[in-house]
Amino acid sequence: MTFIVKLHRHFQRTVILLATFCMVSIVISAYYLYNGYKQENEASELSSEVECGDLPMLLSPWKMIKPSEPLRTDPVVLVFVESQYSLLGQDIVMILESSRFQYHIEIASGKGDLPVLINKNKGKYLLIIYENISKYVNMDSWNRGLLDKYCGEFSVGMIGFQKSNDNTLQTFKLKGVPFQIHGNVGIKDCCINPHSPLLHLTKPSKLDKGPLPGSDWTVFHINHSAYQPVVFAKVRVPENLPLAAIKNVLHATVIHDLGLHDGIQRVLFGNNLNFWLHKLIFIDALSFLTGKRLSLSLDRYILVDIDDIFVGKEETRMKASDVQGTMWQDLPGIATCQNASNMIALPRKSISAGQGPNKEYPAQEMALSKL
Ligand SMILES: *[C@@H]1O[C@H](CO)[C@@H](O)[C@H](O)[C@H]1NC(C)=O
Ligand SMILES: *[C@@H]1O[C@H](CO)[C@@H](O)[C@H](O)[C@H]1NC(C)=O
Ligand SMILES: *[C@@H]1O[C@H](CO)[C@@H](O)[C@H](O)[C@H]1NC(C)=O
């Protein structure tokens, strides 16, 4: 009998223990569920930033295009670099060179010393490029006045780059620029403003969503109608940036100053030209700011280097009969450069951003096409 009572008590204790355990686990899982829900809420708040598909038309483009005055300036670009060896400076020069545009390089000094700009009432430069836009905004007021007067008088535009030089997250403003800039942030979901008047080579087609490599991007806040974004991006939430600073704000990695306040159009790039899309926009900016005087045609050519086929191993080597029998003989518009370079050129449609086989390296594609 006592044995049965003992067993019964033991059983009761076990049930109570089990019940308590259940309660505790319910409470714990409820706690985590609630927290998870809260985090999800925050995430969806972040993604309420403006989507690319329904971008507002910020300003009608035809309002600010000024007539270009081709006869008043020489077709030479003035490039201010940080040093002879700076990487971005070399990238800028490489694009100008491969496009066969004339340029003149100056090392940007702290005071902002300028070369002679005018020769016999004719402007010597049709576009100014600053590798470091800080060198322009911080130059002394005398030189700044001279340069701005030159740009205004000869309808000369400007391209500048804003690159952060250390690895810490920065939020700052440039002198005379009415919006905030974040340096050293990660970005994602970038897209092209289809209303930008700059676009020529670049097509505002849909780009893949998702993060872009690197966390050293510079983005501009857009909250001013005189500055039109060209490439939008969302900021990846950095831990040490207050959420409020980036929430519901449009950010751009390339911005177009329409010149409404001082008559000078400028295109500002965050970071550099490593991003392939920035290279395309840079080429379009050259064209737009110079009234198409420095413009590339939309025809693209592919070069196929075939000389290795003729010196290959015995059985893979090509013979004259193979060449004569190949399909490229029948293609229209073909040019075969025989003696000099063993290259074959095929006409090809213009590159559309985010499409085509060589999406990662359109610049290489372009470089090829220019050889
Ligand atoms: C740009 O120029 C400013 C001086 O005006 C300098 O402090 C800064 O380090 C330069 N930025 C880069 C990336 O070289
Ligand atoms: C734009 O942002 C700047 C800097 O954050 C601020 O001072 C200015 O008032 C803003 N302008 C508008 C129109 O919101
Ligand atoms: C290539 O070279 C051959 C002889 O070496 C010459 O007859 C021919 O005209 C050349 N072709 C071109 C396109 O220059």
Automatic annotation (TrEMBL):
It comes from the Eukaryota. Keywords: Golgi apparatus, Membrane, Transmembrane, Transmembrane helix. Residues 299-325 form the Heparan sulphate-N-deacetylase deacetylase domain. This is Bifunctional heparan sulfate N-deacetylase/N-sulfotransferase 3-like. Pfam families: HSNSD-CE, HSNSD_N. It is found in: Golgi apparatus. Its main location: Golgi. InterPro entries: Heparan_SO4_deacetylase_dom, HSNSD_N. The keyword 4Fe-4S does not apply. Residues 73-289 form the Heparan sulfate-N-deacetylase N-terminal domain. GO terms for molecular function: heparan sulfate N-sulfotransferase activity; hydrolase activity. The gene is LOC106538422. The chain crosses the membrane at residues 15-34. GO terms for cellular component: Golgi apparatus.
